[in-house]
Predict the structure of CBS domain-containing protein.
Amino acid sequence: MRVGQIMHKDPVTITPDKRVGQALKLMQKHNIRHLPVVKDGEMVGWITSRLLREVLLASMLEVITVGDVMIEAPITVSPDTGVEEAARLMYEHKIGGMPVMEGDKLVGVITTMDLLAAFLSMLGLLRSSSRLDLLLDKDPRVLDEVTRLIKEAGGEIINIALGPTKGDKRSYLVRLTKCNLIPIIAKLKQCGYEVVDFIP
């Protein structure tokens, strides 16, 4: 999944000559925490509600301009950036959002909430599901056999996540479309596979 698929297109922007008080009101009006700063059609900075809270005194709201406090070279991504890379950048730099640039053109904004929604969707957590936690040999043929057994027992696999290694075994978190897990668990145990936990 790419940033361009989940970003906010046509983001709300502000010019650098506007007062900080105006920026705060604009954020409140649109229920947002980040504003690209645009001058003559080009992005020249980035301002966040956290930055405004850090630098402001109430008495100065009508004096300080956005250009006085904006970040002039914010961290950016492109629409083709993978969501995993965008999440890594936000985590490493402890930021809650980034401008999305195509060359020199601002084309969107992406926030931590957008990324969280994307990951929940990718993991199948936005729809009703069941989960099996398995401890299996690391041999990939074992996983192939287990997925075949799950399907034969009526399970429809949404995704499989890797868990920690334990000795010569690895844990697998198998998310399934909501179903009765009892026959699946029975089949796996009958074939000698370890079911560590499950969520019906």
